[in-house]
Structure formats: C-alpha cells, structure tokens
Design brief:
It is a single chain. The chain has eleven helices and ten strands. By secondary structure, it is of the alpha/beta class. The protein has a single domain, classed as NADP-dependent oxidoreductase domain (TIM Barrel, Alpha-Beta Barrel), CATH 3.20.20. Helix 7 packs across helix 8. The radius of gyration is 18 Å and the shape is globular.
C-alpha cells in the first residue's frame, strides 16, 4: 500500500474500501471485516449510508490497532449548519464507537455548509478529527471555500474514473493543496468497464484485469480510490494494483476515454439539488 501526505501532515492510504449502498448491517459488517482482513486500512462511510454502526462493529471485532486505521465519515445536508454539524459529528462518533475520526467530510456543497465548516474547524482544533474535507465540491465551490475558510480542506472526494477524468479539477486541487479522492472509481460498472477493450488490452500486458488498470490509472494521477465490493475475491483483486506501473502512453490512452461529463449524477442541475435536499436521514 502507498500513502499520501495531506496538507496538514496526516498520512492517508492511497486505496480504501467504500460501503456506499451497503445498508444491511450484517452484510456491511462482514464486508468491512473481509476488507480489513484483506489488507484495507481506509474505510469510507457516511451518515447518509445508514451503516456507521455496522462499520463500527466490524472495527471493534477486527482487533486492529486504532492508529493503524483511517476512518472516514460524512456530514449530510440535513445537518449542514454550525450546531447541526456539532451534533451530527457526535452521533457519527457514537455510532462508530470511536474516540476520534480520521477524516470528516461535508457530503454535498448545499445548505449552510459554511456554518458546518466552522464547526468542523473547531472539532479539528480540539483533536476530535485528524483531517477535514469535502465531497462533490466542483471547482467553483472548492475555490470559494478555500478562499474564505480558515482551514483549507485536506480532501475533496468527487467522481473520478476513466470516463469522467476531471483533469482541470485535479489541477485546481493540486494548486490549492487539496488531495483528490475518487468515489465511483470503477464508474459504478457503467461503460462495460470490467470488460472494456482498451483496459483489457493494457491489463493483458501486466496480467491485470480492466478494473485493476482503471484503479491504477487513478492512483498514478495521485488520486485516492475507494472501490466497493461485498465479494472478498473482488476486494483482493482491487487491492492488488501496487506491483505494476502504467506507461505515459497507456495513461494518455485511458485518459482519452473521458466523456467530459458524469453519466451517474448531474450536480449542476436544479432537479439534483432538490432531490438531495429532500433526502432526510433522521426526524
């Protein structure tokens, strides 16, 4: 496993395990246990995934030293305010059964996220969070937050895969000192990514699968990846990407697959904003 150093000096694994869309407690707990046993140390969850308790149970059962783990969770829109963030953070901390969070992220750039950020800055100052960051902050929102916040976000987790490369966004993050992290690094299975001819052709040269090639492409761009699977074989495959290096020509060929837009979610539409704001995770 390789690590990246965040803008505050904290080390973060370059590959982790995500649990989006795994709300069933027993399935999620077993998946996290399998991931930890496979060698993952970064676990990515969120209040809106409804599985923080299952993740916490797996962490406790794993008996892995807390300092060897890197646990991420996220603040949902409904709680995006100064007071809301303080309360939501404590709720997540209790559900996870932890004393601190390694990375706490604002899940969407909506509602009073500036108030939430001030609360997160204070929690960071108190040592309850090792690093604070954001999700789905596209270049304009990220630049605005960086310009006005006391603490620059350590991480921005956005959609990044060969079909939505976001090269300019990566350049903007690098300039700001913000670590990019990819959700959906396997494009949620779209575009035939697991059998894609180009990815397969490149993978055959190294004895690797198209999925492994896609993940390696992102990490070589300096992007942290958090693939998700409930199958141990896939977990092992996804983690086995650190023994080969793509050439510049191969990197460019994969980058040429970029469509220039997301086909998973349009964060720029009013309909998406209304839908996300209507999603309540508690009374």
């Amino acid at each position: 496993m390789e690590y990246t150093t965040l803008n505050n000096g904290v080390k973060m694994p370059m590959e982790g395990f995500g649990v989006f869309q795994v709300p069933e407690a027993d399935i999620c707990k077993q998946a996290v246990l399998d991931a930890l046993n496979t060698g993952y140390r970064l676990i990515d969850t969120a209040a809106a995934y409804f599985n923080e308790e299952a993740v916490g149970a797996a962490i406790q059962e794993s008996n892995i030293a807390r300092e060897d783990l890197f646990i991420t969770t996220k603040l949902w829109i409904q709680d995006a305010s100064y007071e809301g963030a303080k309360k939501a953070f404590e709720t997540s901390l209790n559900k996870l059964g932890l004393d601190y969070i390694d990375l706490y992220l604002i899940h969407q750039p909506m509602s009073d996220y500036y108030g939430a950020w001030r609360a997160m800055e204070e929690l960071y100052d108190e040592g309850k969070i090792r690093a604070i960051g954001v999700c789905n902050f596209y270049p304009d929102r990220l630049a605005d937050l960086v310009a006005n916040a006391r603490i620059t976000p350590a991480v921005n987790q956005v959609e990044l895969h060969p079909f939505f490369a976001q090269n300019q966004a990566l350049a903007d993050m690098k300039e700001a000192g913000v670590q990019p992290e990819a959700w959906g690094p396997l494009a949620e299975g779209k575009h035939g990514i697991f059998t894609h001819p180009l990815l397969k052709e490149i993978g055959d040269r190294y004895g690797k699968t198209p999925a492994q090639v896609a993940l390696r492409w992102n990490t070589q761009r300096g992007v942290v990846v958090i693939p998700k699977s409930t199958h141990k074989e896939s977990m092992e495959e996804n983690l086995n990407i650190w023994d080969f290096t793509l050439t510049n020509d191969e990197m460019d060929a994969i980058s040429a697959l970029d469509l220039g837009h997301s086909e998973i979610i349009d964060h720029g539409s009013a309909q998406t904003a209304k839908w996300l704001n209507s999603w309540k995770i508690h009374d």
